[in-house]
Amino acid sequence: MAAARLIVCLALAVIHTWPLALAPDRLSRHDNADTMLNEWIVAWVVHQAPRDPAALFDANIFYPERRTLAFSEHLVVQSAMAAPMIWLGASPVLAYNLLLMLGLALSAWAMWVTMERWTGSDAAGAAAGSLLAFNAHTLTRLPHVQALHLEFLPLAWLALDSLLRRPHLRTAIALGLLAAAQALTSNYQLVFTALALVVSVAVRPREWACPHSRRTLGFLLLAGAVATMLVGPSLVPYYLARQEQGLTRSIEEVALYSSTWRDYVATAGRLHYAWWSHRFLEGATALFPGFAALLLAGVALGSMRVRRDPRARMCTITGGVGLVLSFGPAVPGYAWLYASIPLLQGVRGAARFGFLMLVAVAVLGGFGVSVLRARWGGRTWWPIAAGLLVVVLNVEALRAPLAYRPFDGVPGVYDVLANEPHAIVAEFPFFRPDAVFRNASYVLNSTAHWRKLVNGYSGFTPASYVRHAERLRDFPGDNSRSLLDELGVTHVVVHFAEYGEHAERMRSAVAAAGWLRTMAAQRDLTIYEVDRRR
After folding, report:
1. Which of 494, 490, 498, 489 is nearest to 526 (CA)?
2. pLDDT for res 443
3. What DSSP element (H or E) covers 424?
4. Is 83 helix (H, G, I), strand (E, B) or coil?
5. Whole-prediction pTM value?
């Protein structure tokens, strides 16, 4: 049965990302620079972890800065999943696309399993799984694979409930492992998971705060210790990067990326977008649960049995807390929390707390189906009605068919750099800081050689990049050559097509620069070796 559920979830993931499954090696979301960044991160972790795990965070971008992986997510869990694919020859793009579909499918499957355990209803599980994995938020976050792997949170909730009901060492360890696994998918998920589990424990004090429940409390502390021990080492590079780079988000910046009421009526689902939601989606974080989901959640909340269920209560209150926090500094006390809790200072997009509301709606939607099943489950038409409910939930969220860009592979000319073990590379145009996202293709292309790269793109741009961009504006002039010499750059890559109408002028200028010797060329891309003797 578990395999059948997973097959259904995989099929739904294929449908919601259609036509990606037709050519996952040749289709991409490269219209968004974050896709290329995350493809590079996964490939880097798979490349570096087996070779030198101690230097995992000293990634090859933004040379000569250190700990540059800590400028964004580390995606350790997703990279571990992708490792066999890449070792078997998959490109970073293919691995990313498979991770994307796998994350959606596993998230749906995990919630399905959890709700089936809690309600005894496969229909409730299928509904909750659909709502968790395929909703307005996740289906607008396809460039962010860190937002698509939610499979450990439902299972952590399942383990927490089991631990509170029947304390056991094995369950406590499982809870710690599952919480850590979810936290290691993303730093945002670390905060959301910690919040969800802390709130869930707090609203069930009868099961751990009584004198006779010391054993339960001990196991909860053990689970927290296991999770902290596993997650803690990954936070050290972020702490050091924060100290070195001032890598933090101001409360004013958080306010810019906090929710408004528009976010909760925003969805890119084709059905709603065409009729009314297009008025609200632009610039919003899509958080509209869907009408069918809200009706099912209402059915659940209208049931005395569900309201008394501690599992429904803990998930509902978690969603309510997420909804409130999504408004960021507009909420009284948020600024104090932000100043007091270091983890919260890494959350720039407070609006994303609203996703916990969608998670709560998914759980309540499942409970709502279980209420309907208790009322009508004996009718001959119930299985058909339950199936139609799941279909409606998916139709409301459906965005497919989606638009993808063709990907023809990393240009083969980069292979020459793979044979230069000590190469330090700079690529041109060297984009201004306000256009740093245009370096994303350079970052992805570096997966062909993994040499140190002066360029970079990430969630944070170091001050050194700003200085470099200013001095490299006159390339291939004397000022830029002086900086390249200071940095020890050995190779220069020029993308002439990026210069547009000035391409021929740049070709002439580079040809006249006696210190650049052509190594290899492919179309409008040429790799030069820096000749320090001239």
Report:
1. 494
2. 98
3. strand 424-428
4. helix
5. 0.94
